[in-house]
Amino acid sequence: MISFLIIAFVAIFLIIFVISSLFGSSQRRMEKKLTKMANSLIRVQNSVIQQNEDLLKDTANRSASIQKDAIRTVVHTVKEGWTDSEESTDMIYCKYCGCYVDSDSRYCKNCGAKLRD
């Protein structure tokens, strides 16, 4: 009876070992393939970023500049107070820096941009 239990235990152990080795090796191969694919995708992503680095930096800088100008305009408007265009006919807004300038000025006194042709 004990020998039968030992033989049954060994047989079950061998079956479990064979099954786990069959599926374990295929799982390891799949993990290696997935790791290789992930590394390849990371290399491609890094390559695309490097190739477009100047464009990405330029886009980020332009976005920051636009946001900075908008914030400057809002702060200036809050600081100076909002006025209707009918009340302030002698002043205009510089479209480049948001500063108020005289309506007859050709250039902005703050940033030097040309206001009219």
What does this structure look like?
There is one protein chain. The protein has 117 residues and is mostly helical. Helices cover 67% and strands 5% of the residues. The chain is built from two helices and two strands; from the N terminus they run ααββ. It has a two-stranded antiparallel sheet with strand order 1-2. A hairpin with a 6-residue loop joins β1 and β2. The mean pLDDT is 76.
Across the major sheet, the strand order is 1-2
- Give the distance, in angstroms, between the N- and C-terminal Cα atoms: 109 Å
Uncertain ranges? none
Shape designation: rod-shaped
Helix segment count? 2
Portion of residues in helices?
A: 55-70%
Q: What is the helix/strand order? A: HHEE
Give the number of DSSP strands. Answer: 2
Task: Describe the sheet with the most strands.
Answer: 2 strands, antiparallel
Radius of gyration: 36 Å
Quickly give the structural class: mainly alpha
User: Kindly state the mean pLDDT as a whole number?
Assistant: 76
Instruction: Kindly estimate the percentage of residues that lie in beta strands according to DSSP.
Output: 5-15%
Topology (elements, then pairings):
Elements: H1 2-51, H2 53-80, E1 91-93, E2 100-102
Antiparallel strand pairs: 1-2
